[in-house]
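Complex record, two chains
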Amino acid sequence: MALSFLDRERTVAKPGFNRWMVPPAALCMHLCIGQAYAFSVFNLPMTKLLGITKSAPDDWKLTELGWIFSIAIVFLGLSAAVFGRWVEEGGPRKAMFTAGLCWTLGFLVSALGVYGHQLWLIYLGYGVLGGIGLGIGYISPVSTLIKWFPDRPGMATGMAIMGFGGGAFIASPLSVWLMQKFATPTHVGVAETFIAMGLIYLCFTWVGAAIVRVPAPGWRPAGYTPPVQAQKLITTNDVFVYDALKTPQFWLIWWVLCLNVTAGIGVLGQASAMTQEMFPGKVTPVAAAGFVGLLSLFNMGGRFFWASISDMIGRKNTYFCFFAIGTVLYILVPQTGLIGSVALFVACFCVIISMYGGGFSTVPAYLKDMFGTRYVGAIHGMLLTAWSAAGILGPVLVNYIREYQINNGVPKAQAYNTTMYIMAGLLVIGLICNALVRAVHERHHLKAGDARVAAART
Amino acid sequence: MANDQNGTTTLQLAAAWIFVGIPLLWGVLETLGNAMKLFQ
């Protein structure tokens, strides 16, 4: 078969393979799909595709364009849930190859949509095809990394998921630069930029697919001795992918992720406006843009930092830190506005956003501790529906409560206070959910000779 | 050059990390430049 090099069997590492080749392979994927966080740089140019210098009556509206990102995030969650088992059983190379193809096709179909000024083609391209690429690509290297780094699973997955945060850093200036290069007096250069970026991402993701390897059965790092007996919250057993859905642990961690993301995602989207409104006259639009950049850096750094810390203090304790510290900081934020301390406000949000990123990167290792390594990628895929839910819940909470407050005569500088207290309340609920997590009951563990395992390729 | 039959060479490892490290470093520096505007 022409595509047999994608098979899992062909990716098993030979003796002497250095496991540190796997994180760059994972980063090839995550740095590309992390572009999703920077998609907003195309929003304004796409409102001027016909008018060029300013929006024409037939040009697309920002509200219509906002749906592109939302559709992509919904399809991220759905595809990660639906294709999780296929990714786990087909292996990382096949998954990364497919994700790269979907991601690039998404850009190319969107370019057609820009050329023909057909918005539905962009919904279909970037939203649906790109969203599927996002979902498959996001989970594709996760379980492979956990298997290569059984001694440091948090750090390993943190490194890859850090790449997802870092992808926007590359995509944002690259998109602006490409649009400037391709712009002419008669068009804004968005379609050409989509084509160029799609092709660049195809190269990157396929290089990642080429160098990724899975460890041979029974492989373990030199000097590493796996624990013979399961620790209190780290199992040595495996839970079948669909059996995980029947456990309270899955749903508790689902809420843990959903609430942690909800608290951060709404703030991320409104950070620029929030600083300017809470500190009128003190924070300029340029400084506010700098604040957004600073938050992105903490979002990325937090992914690596907190996931690595979780290897030392445990996943449950790490999430306890997120929820306990987050609650205190959210309560503190309105006070920073009252005393007019921009520095304290910035410090609070930098820590909050680092924990938002940390929530994403620590969760695969949390799932591995609960459900074992065998189906962790597929279970992680199903858990990402929590991200989709939070993607709707977070911005709605921040935007609508702010609007409600302003309509009821609350000054703009104080319009976010209620939201901050609600976020603190959500984090308290998250704290309770996390505290309720216990080891999975042994009746859910896979038994030797289970027909479902025999049916699956290992 | 050795392939994975014989083990990963240092050159292969360095090339893989440079391949992802350079764009990431460029992006981080660009973002850091923007973030500095907050303190100006």
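Note: The mean pLDDT of chain A is 90.
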